[in-house]
């Protein structure tokens, strides 16, 4: 069935300069269900390579991974717009390659839009996709898929203003090409201000200050379930600690035969004997 989302691509785009847009990543249906009432946009990020699959970077993430998790998130979401990252190597070669893979992602998941990394270099591809029915979210600043050329995940535009113009030009090229919003990753606040005021579509910051039109965080990071600790991650819960405590309590009760107690045990009707049928 066709679900008309409360949060459509044009409605998200129209929120430039308005109430901040709330985004989180999600990789599974139950998490999407929990986050949907609170988020305007759920991003199935290729960060799943690291946070779900234990890969060293996002570079090895595949179309099959993004489609399996994307479809799960779409099944769990109802009002939030679902956007799916295009994996490294599936869109950079040509606009035609990008279109073929983006269409596969939308058709096989039911999501509303894709996200891809890159500024001026990707503008032609973004124009090709948006002109042919594929909404695109841009991603500029720190580009995790380029870790092998950049050499790391250092924030940009923090030492001086060298390089600011290139990032502003990236934002303008991606917006002019038709992107409905742009993720801005790991840049200094004054650069985020310049980027946000340079374009007429919403900027979604991750480590890009409160100047952006919205914010996104990786869900496992903000729930305290990952060991990744970039400066920009605020931990809103300590679920990693809670999971460790629960597993330790279970292990102790299994070893002492406290679990499963009577309340968790199926008995034969009329059998009033004690544990183990003795
Ligand atoms: O992969 C991801 O999770 C992302 C966001 C954090 C922007 O690209
Ligand atoms: Na990503």
TrEMBL record:
NCBIfam families assigned to the protein according to its UniProt record, in alphabetical order: panB, PRK00311.1
Lineage start: Bacteria, Pseudomonadati, Pseudomonadota, Alphaproteobacteria, Rhodospirillales
InterPro entries listed in its UniProt record: Pantoate_hydroxy_MeTrfase (IPR003700), Pyrv/PenolPyrv_kinase-like_dom (IPR015813), Pyrv_kinase-like_dom_sf (IPR040442)
UniProt enzyme class: transferase
Pathway as given in its UniProt record: Cofactor biosynthesis; (R)-pantothenate biosynthesis; (R)-pantoate from 3-methyl-2-oxobutanoate: step 1/2
Protein family: Belongs to the PanB family.
EC number in record: 2.1.2.11
Entry's localization field: Cytoplasm
GO biological process entries: methylation; pantothenate biosynthetic process
Single Gene Ontology MF annotation: methyltransferase activity
Key word Ubl conjugation present: no
Reaction catalysed by this enzyme: (6R)-5,10-methylene-5,6,7,8-tetrahydrofolate + 3-methyl-2-oxobutanoate + H2O = 2-dehydropantoate + (6S)-5,6,7,8-tetrahydrofolate
HAMAP family xref list: PanB (MF_00156)
UniProt organism field: Zavarzinia aquatilis
Binding-site residues, Mg(2+): 46, 85, 117
Primary location group: cytoplasm
Reported function: Catalyzes the reversible reaction in which hydroxymethyl group from 5,10-methylenetetrahydrofolate is transferred onto alpha-ketoisovalerate to form ketopantoate.
Subunit structure: Homodecamer; pentamer of dimers.
Official protein name in the record: 3-methyl-2-oxobutanoate hydroxymethyltransferase
Keywords carried by this UniProt record: Cytoplasm, Magnesium, Metal-binding, Methyltransferase, Pantothenate biosynthesis, Transferase
Entry note: cofactor: Binds 1 Mg(2+) ion per subunit.
Active site: residue positions: 185 (proton acceptor)
Positions annotated to bind 3-methyl-2-oxobutanoate: 46-47, 85, 115
Record GO cellular component, one term: cytoplasm
């Amino acid at each position: 069935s066709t679900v008309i989302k409360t949060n459509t691509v044009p409605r998200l785009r129209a929120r430039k300069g308005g109430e901040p847009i709330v985004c989180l990543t999600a990789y599974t249906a139950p998490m999407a269900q929990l986050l949907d009432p609170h988020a305007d946009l759920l991003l199935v990020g290729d960060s799943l390579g690291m946070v779900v699959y234990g890969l060293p970077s996002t570079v090895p993430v595949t179309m099959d991974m993004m489609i399996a998790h994307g479809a799960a998130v779409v099944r769990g979401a109802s009002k939030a717009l679902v956007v799916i990252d295009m994996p490294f190597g599936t869109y950079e070669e040509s606009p035609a390659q990008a279109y073929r893979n983006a269409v596969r992602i939308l058709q096989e998941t039911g999501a509303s839009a894709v996200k891809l990394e890159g500024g001026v270099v990707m503008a032609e591809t973004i124009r090709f996709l948006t002109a042919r029915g594929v909404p695109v979210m841009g991603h500029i600043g720190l580009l995790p898929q380029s870790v092998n050329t950049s050499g790391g995940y250092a924030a940009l535009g923090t030492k001086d203003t060298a390089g600011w113009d290139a990032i502003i030009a990236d934002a303008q090229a991606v917006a002019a090409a038709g992107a409905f919003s742009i993720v801005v990753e790991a840049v200094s606040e004054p650069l985020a201000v310049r980027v946000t005021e340079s374009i007429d579509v919403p900027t979604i910051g991750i480590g890009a200050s409160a100047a952006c039109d919205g914010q996104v965080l990786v869900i496992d990071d903000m729930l305290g379930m990952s060991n990744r600790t970039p400066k920009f991650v605020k931990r809103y819960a300590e679920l990693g600690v809670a999971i460790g405590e629960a597993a330790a309590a279970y292990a102790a009760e299994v070893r002492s035969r406290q679990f499963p107690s009577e309340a968790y045990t199926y008995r034969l009707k009329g059998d009033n004997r004690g544990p183990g049928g003795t």
